[in-house]
Amino acid sequence: MFLDSFFADADDEIAGCIRCRGAQPLDMALKMAFQPIVDVQARTVFAYEALVRGANGESAGQVISAVTPDGMYTFDQTCRVLAIDTAQRLGLDTYLSINFLPNAVYEPATCIRLTLACAKKVGFSPEKLIFELTEGEKIVNPTHALRIIKDYQQRGFLTAIDDFGAGYSGLNLLADFQPHIVKLDMALTRDIDRDPIRRAIVAGVIGTCLALGCRVVAEGVETASELGTLKDMGVQLFQGYWLARPAIEALPEPDWSRC
């Protein structure tokens, strides 16, 4: 198994990092699924988001619910390593978007070394990494989370707010974070073609992102009408079942006829 050999072969500095805060090895097997983020104007895949799954295809929610608070750091680091290794084996040549848990990252300058060591070991270009901060997780220490994000940005990584509009911080998070990418939660995009209130809200978010220089991704798009409405509103990047479902250990091709 790559994970076992990678952690076993890590040098003392990296091994010390993954054991910090008394982290214990995970007692579960994981796999990675991938879903494309599609540029419908250029008709290209902008990125693939890595999504954790259980050994038997269990959902991310099921997997995360089985992780104890003490195991979150190891879980976060393991998912990063597994995502990078799997993406490289599959020949991914776009951006790779990885969710990170800000409450699990103890020290950004130290913890990122494991990610970079994995990328170097498997031959994956770290310049292709995007780190997504989910708005759905309540941030225990916002100042620390912001320091993590700024550290990643200074290193040249693209950063994103995931699930924007569904979580705890909303516009405050956007104001403090100023990411490269904002991903609209499916709660905002669902039935937007038939909901003038959602259209008004999303139009405001798009305008704000445009002013800040952030790109917008519409998540959870499931119908042609949703995609068409959001395209007319100026959205160019899309992710959702309408274009492609996630696939375990595979890079699914979007249905270009639906763009």
Care to describe what's here?
With 259 residues, this protein is of the alpha/beta class. It has one domain (2-253): TIM Barrel (Alpha-Beta Barrel), CATH 3.20.20. It is built from ten helices and nine strands. The protein has an eight-stranded mixed beta barrel. α4 runs parallel beside α5. The protein is globular, with a radius of gyration of 18 Å.
Topology:
Blueprint: H1 2-9, H2 12-18, E1 30-39, E2 44-54, H3 60-65, H4 72-89, E3 95-100, H5 108-122, E4 129-134, H6 142-154, E5 158-164, H7 171-177, E6 181-184, H8 186-189, H9 196-212, E7 215-218, H10 224-232, E8 237-238, E9 247-248
Parallel strand pairs: 2-3, 3-4, 4-5, 5-6, 6-7, 7-8
Antiparallel strand pairs: 1-2, 1-8, 1-9
Supply the helix-strand structural class: alpha/beta
N-to-C CA distance = 39 Å
Strand order of the largest sheet: 1-2-3-4-5-6-7-8
Instruction: Characterize the largest beta sheet: strand count, sense, and whether it forms a barrel.
Output: 8 strands, mixed, barrel
- Percentage of residues in helical conformation: 40-55%
Counting H and I runs of at least 4 residues, what is the number of helices?
10
> What is the averaged pLDDT score?
87
CATH class category? Alpha Beta
Quick tags:
259 residues; alpha/beta; TIM Barrel; eight-stranded mixed barrel; 40% helix
